[in-house]
Automatic annotation (TrEMBL):
The lineage of its organism: Bacteria, Bacillati, Actinomycetota, Actinomycetes, Kitasatosporales. Signal peptide: none annotated. This is LysR family transcriptional regulator. It comes from the Bacteria. It comes from Streptomyces gibsoniae. Pfam families: HTH_1 (PF00126), LysR_substrate (PF03466).
Amino acid sequence: MSRTDDDGIPVAGLVRRVPDLGALELLLAVARLGSLGRAARELGITQPAASSRVRSMERQLGVALVDRSPRGSRLTDAGALVTDWARRIVEAAEAFDAGAQALRGRRDSRLRVAASMTIAEYLLPGWLIALRAQRPDTAVSLLAGNSAAVAERLLADEADLGFVEGLTVPTGLDAAVVAHDRLIVVTAPGHPWARRRAPLSAGELASTQLILREEGSGTRQVLQAALGGLARPLLELSSTTAVKASAVSGAGPAVLSELAVGEELSARRLVSVPVEDVRLDRALRAVWRTGHRPTGPGRDLLGLTRG
């Protein structure tokens, strides 16, 4: 028999399988502070309550998340992976809350943003939180997709401001560079590439099947250009997080933004593989329809990206 809420509406199974935001915030605090006690104090709860919440999460997910010892608390390998996913959820919740608060406000200002996946996942949440502090009455809607989809949204007047990761500015759009990024080749520690000393050549990279983003993404566009269009997909996935998780699982090597893999590299869940004679640098750009430079909250968001 399915569960229902107080109004008799069925509760989806996903709600029962995913820990609540408070539990995810606790896990992030343990990862950052290295102590369950310090994490509990930061969140204003008792240590027994924090321990109970961690155990409840572990039962819910069916995996051990935290190793506890007199020297502190350390995430298990599974806990480190869950923490990375938790961070995305908490950041999305903060962005959601920023939009919800604006919707409850005066509603006299609205900004429609379209962003490619890497920027949407790793840069935009911070920019939107800063914009909320500056413009609390602005309601922001975010449409995330690959760089080609962002251009389509802008040209169809379904977005006021966009962010893309490709090599060129799509036709019909003006642009400004807001950041620079570099793609790197990564693989799980058990892969033969993780132990090699010599850098990969362009030929080796082009002849190897890789875990890649889908066609139309800025990441794929940069790699294809660097390899003369010869990149070979082992898997094609539609999000940076999915590509990263597949690489961590040992499915094969992947090419990802440096922005996306810092924690995995630090924790040795992924290893960076050097490459020679392959240009994988790229500019991250804000884009808008030609002749329609952003004004109001769009102009303010653009300014924050350069801060």
